[in-house]
Amino acid sequence: LAYAKIDGNKAIIVEVNSETDFVAKNEEFKTLVNDIATNVLENNAKDMESALAIETNGKKLEEIITEKVATIGEKLSFRRFKIVEKTDNQIFGTYSHMGGKIVTLTVLEGNDEELAKDIAMQAAAMRPLYLNREQVPADVLEKERAILREQAENEGLDSSKLDMIVNGRVNKYYEEVCLVDQGFIKENKMKVNKYVESKKSSVLGFVRYE
After folding, report:
1. Could you say which DSSP state residue 159 is in?
2. 139: which residues sit within 8 A by CB, 6+ positions away?
3. Are the C-beta atoms of 32 and 105 separated by less than 8 Å?
4. CA distance 93 to 118
5. Is 123 helix (H, G, I), strand (E, B) or coil?
6. What is the DSSP string of 67-112?
7. 124-176 pLDDT per residue, tens
8. Distances (CA, A) of 45 to 57, 118, 198
9. Among 69-73, 87-91, 105-109, 134-138, where is mean pLDDT lowest?
């Protein structure tokens, strides 16, 4: 189960795993996930080690999870989390899909709650890997470029136009993996960044757990 929780200018997204879907739908498990998110956010844990060492009512979080394993009867593991902070001039958006199988958290400039949620929905549905082109690591881009060049060569395309063809396909790659370059799900003829700009806002970041 993935879950996002907002508390003022801080938000957290967590993922806790069980062995079956049946347990993930169980109220006791959902309560545990909420408790984990609340405690880790309140204590501003920096990493998993410090998160598991957080004490509530004299028990460490790690012990609480172990006890739940005994009562629920399935192996449970607190897999990952991320704490995100914003300023007063920014807004969080969250979206949960398929009962917490996919959860996203976005940060936008401005105070448009609906827009922040729409972009969180976009991130859930369209599986972006990066916020924008600048975030695509150089080695990932080089690898992608090499694959695209090889494909173009195998198609027997005009070698003098290969660079232009590859550049065009790299742009298509950006449109798939970069959130702001994707077509906006509610207005497909418009790119996410153009739509957000039309609302006098900008996307500052996102986290997507699946």
Report:
1. G
2. none
3. no
4. 8
5. helix
6. HHHHHHTS--EEEEEEEEE--TTEEEEEEEETTTTEEEEEEEESS-
7. 999 999 999 999 999 999 999 999 999 988 888 788 888 899 999 999 999 99
8. 18, 29, 37
9. 69-73
Kindly list the strands in the beta sheet with 10-17, ordered across the sheet, starting from the edge strand earlier in the chain.
Answer: 2-7, 10-17, 77-85
Distance between CA atoms of 200 and 197, rounded to whole angstroms? Answer: 5
As a whole number of angstroms, the distance between CA 168 and CA 170 comes to: 5
Distances (CA, A) of 110 to 9, 51, 87: 13, 31, 10
d(CA 101, CA 176): 21
Per residue in 55-79, pLDDT (tens digit) is 988 999 999 999 999 988 899 999 9
Q: Letter for the amino acid at 146?
A: A
CA angle 184, 186, 190 (to 5 degrees): 40
204 burial level (CB within 10 Å; 0-12, 13-18, 19+)? middle
Mean pLDDT confidence for 82-98: 97
Determine the Cα–Cα distance for residues 205 and 15; give it in Å rounded to an integer: 19
State the pTM of this model.
0.90
Which position has the token pair 């899909």? 97
C-alpha dihedral, 20 to 33 to 17 to 83, nearest 10° = 150
